[in-house]
Amino acid sequence: MTDRPPFAAVVLAGGKSARLGGQHKPQLEVGGRTMLAAVLAAVEHAAPRVVVGPPQPVPDGVLLVREQPPRGGPVPALRAGLAAVDAEVVAVLAADLPFLTADLVDALATELVGRGSSDGVLVVDGAGRDQYLLGVWRTATLRAAVGAVHGPTSMRALLTPLAVHRHRPTPVAGRPVPWTDCDTPAELARARAAAPRPAD
């Protein structure tokens, strides 16, 4: 999409996953590349691209920051990421979305800009669940919401009061859905089985 509005990207790439044997989830491979690499490729045109999490490999030009306190959860991670963003629009994404596409992120950003009254646009999955770490937001509104938080807060509690538009992507036959995440060994195995084979 060549008419995409400018936007930044904050990718939450937290610590080890107990359900995956304590491995660092964003660095696990699906389809021949890490899940973090897949997410960063989907926001290749974002500026800046900010990864929040512990020290880990990131491409040149990607800023790596750490939330305070470390492993404090997604809201402190979002706060740390937003501190590095100066764009008016920001994509907020989990790092374990191996089938995320640039077309979807661009569509979310374009839809947000076209909806002057919305604070954000997030994806709703096939089961009707809001995907709080798969959306695009107005940076100033999101920063104000995070700044008003005191104490532990979930992403659901943070984002629910905002004016949110829900985007329901149409699944493409034969392709894994873009909201596929990998929280358990079974989900990771299914994602690996569904991933296209990497080119030789």
TrEMBL record:
Gene3D superfamilies linked: Spore Coat Polysaccharide Biosynthesis Protein SpsA, Chain A
Pfam families xref list: NTP_transf_3 (PF12804)
Keyword Transferase: yes
Keywords: Transferase
Keyword rRNA-binding: no
Annotated ranges, domain MobA-like NTP transferase: 9-160
Entry GO MF terms: nucleotidyltransferase activity
Protein's name in the database: NTP transferase domain-containing protein
Lineage: Bacteria, Bacillati, Actinomycetota, Actinomycetes, Geodermatophilales
